[in-house]
Amino acid sequence: MAETGFDYVIVGGGSAGCVLANRLSENPDARVLLLEAGGRDWHPLIHMPVGFAKMTTGPHTWGLVTAPQKHANDREIPYAQARVIGGGSSINAEVFTRGHPSDYDRWAEEEGCGGWAFKDVQPYFLRSEGNTILSGDWHGTDGPLGVSDIPDPQPMTRAFVQSCQERGIPFNPDFNGETQPGCGVYQTTTRHYRRCSAAVGYLKPALKRANLTVETGCLVKRITFDGTRATGVEYFDGKLRKTARADSEVIVTSGAIGSPKIMMLSGVGPAAHLNDHGIDVVHDLPGVGENLNDHFGIDIVAQLKGHTSLDKYNKPHWALWAGIEYVLFRSGPITSNVVEGGAFWHSAGAGGVPDLQFHFLAGAGAEAGVPSVPKGSSGITLNSYTVRPKSRGTVRLRSSDPAALPVVDPNFLAEPDDLKTSVEGVKISREIFEQASLQKYIKSIRFPDDSVKTQAEFEAYARAYGRTSYHPTCTCKMGVDEMAVVDPQLRVRGLDGIRICDSSVMPSLIGSNTNAPTIMIAEKASDLIRGNQ
User: Fold this and answer.
1) Residues classed as catalytic
2) CA–CA distance, 27 with 32 (Å, rounded to integer)
3) What is the tens place of the pLDDT at every residue in 322-355?
4) Is 3.40.1190.20 the CATH classification of the domain at 151-185+296-386+413-465?
5) Mean pLDDT confidence for 482-510
6) Quick one: fold of 1-61+78-99+195-294+469-533?
């Protein structure tokens, strides 16, 4: 078995792993290895903003489905998680939001995570952001993560924003500024009309450094330990079994599903669960794989009178024209991320911090598992979810085989308050579709149709059609209580030489999309590791 030595071994080449590979290799004396299970981001659709619609299934995902969801009709829900360099930032909808300041203040003041209040993390948001339009106290302009306006929002997106205002939701030009509530067009993680994933923004510029090694197609077997100190990583590169020695630290960045799986395969987690799978216990840490917290999105879908949405480009001749327009002029529908518009609002219409988020898709059936419109017609979709759900689930091993997919149980809608707020989101979504600016385009609202009227019927609809919003978090949560897995410096409790630095360490889910916060966590982690804090 071949062995090589490094100072830092980073396990997982997603958003956080790419950030850390860049930042830690800035020191030319630090030897850095980044391991990724998936492949390189060669596929052209990854780099086209509209390509998101083709990325929720296929070879760049793990092919996960949830355990049967007890509170959602026992459905096994498709659970897209990236398996490609750049992770979620290479296949997501590129929506750039970072949550409400109170989310981070809650981490610090209520959940034992000192140093993670908004005033502490805002500098890292700014350091990461390369905004091409906005600037000032709330936005960075020189960071590696490109952020841009959608160059030409689709007419249905414009009508959506107008319909929101007719519904009483005010226009908001910047969801990441001083005020979050309102409706508008999302900024996206794009630069020069192409996706700016963490692999593009952070990793690619660092690849020329002699002290950075990147290996893809690597299946991690386990982290190795000498007593309670992490010493390296054992993995397969497709042909050989290898060990990478970590003279300084092992850094786990495999996300909210992958990180707890790797920790448990390595003997770190709930002892009884590890024993059930014949895994020697290195450290009994009961919080590993607990506390899974995800957004449960519920879609409504309308059929249009004409071909006025992006569905028009499902026809071969229009698709060809779109490709020509993009190649020659970097314009047209391929510059769209599909999920162009959105809103943050209140389920009860009261003020304060929004408890609902909306994503408008200028098409129908764009994502796996979402209902669509009759073939040959065009449609639009509006998704909503409760931004701070109370329901908690788990990630568990299926077996001790590293190639076996874990058992993912988000436990959606386990808490009655989640169902109540989610139903309000569906009702508001339908009210938005009923406003004049959209009604002039809509032939009929197909999901839910007119038969869904009572509270019980809306609840049944939510259970039947809700799905993941691709925001799993919190399975190796940060804190100081007995279920915390890492401390506020992201060091694994009870062990040495190992940190977890990705979305799994969030103590609770933030009220927005999670890619920008994950990048922030990795930016801050790089300073913690280098002793800059």
Assistant:
1) 471
2) 10
3) 888 988 888 888 999 999 999 999 998 667 899 9
4) no
5) 98
6) FAD/NAD(P)-binding domain (3.50.50)
